[in-house]
Specification:
The chain has one helix and no strands. With 25 residues, it is mainly α. The two termini are 15 Å apart.
Length: 25
Amino acid sequence: MLNLRWNDIGPNGAKWLADALETNQ
């Protein structure tokens, strides 16, 4: 489980996270 906040990862991190979640589905 990732323990990150949106403020920590920023826009690029948010995009990466969204892509990662899509891939895992």
